[in-house]
Design a protein that fits this description.
single chain, mainly alpha
Length: 180
């Protein structure tokens, strides 16, 4: 694996940019896809948002200052792209974000790319009831096994606030799962 600093330098260099971007995509596409997929819940939408994320990364790489890790910066872009996508989708459909989440959960059962069992579907339904920030923190911590300091870089929030959000999310999910 190429060192992050080297990769960033190659991405900023016009001669090596194309090859470096290919390395970047191959290195991060799966992790970013699943991060996005857990936000938008639909395979095709996740693919679209992932593509938009990489376009934004490519166009904005010169603005990357290296204050955070490259993947933290990309996760922030992916998160913002996914949330923007959901807001636009709910506006286009003329429904609230909550109603859109309910529709996405219903569609998840019919999604040929969803390989989950009943319990995973229940978990997704529970996640859909969470406030946006709690859902993001839970997904990053539980599914992606990110450390709080990494999540803090992505969401630009204190570690203490993240721990509180995660704890609340877990309690709400447990309550939801017990209710059924």
């Amino acid at each position: 694996m190429i060192a992050e600093e080297t990769l960033v330098n190659e991405l900023k260099n016009k001669e090596s940019q194309a090859k470096a971007f290919e390395v970047l995509v191959n290195t991060y596409k799966e992790r970013l896809y699943w991060h996005i997929r857990r936000i938008v819940l639909n395979h095709d939408d996740a693919d679209d948002v992932l593509q938009n994320t990489f376009i934004k990364v490519f166009r904005s790489i010169d603005k990357f200052k290296g204050d955070s890790k490259l993947y933290s910066w990309m996760y922030r872009i992916a998160t913002n792209e996914a949330l923007t996508f959901l807001k636009q989708k709910s506006r286009k459909l003329g429904v609230s974000n909550e109603e859109l989440q309910e529709q996405l959960i219903e569609n998840l059962q019919a999604d040929v790319y969803f390989e989950g069992e009943e319990i995973q579907l229940k978990l997704q339904q529970a996640l859909a009831t969470l406030p946006e920030k709690q859902k993001l923190v839970f997904n990053m911590k539980y599914y992606q096994e990110m450390k709080y300091d990494e999540i803090s870089e992505v969401l630009e929030t204190s570690v203490g606030a993240l721990k509180a959000s995660y704890h609340l999310a877990v309690k709400k999910i447990e309550t939801y799962l017990r209710a059924d």
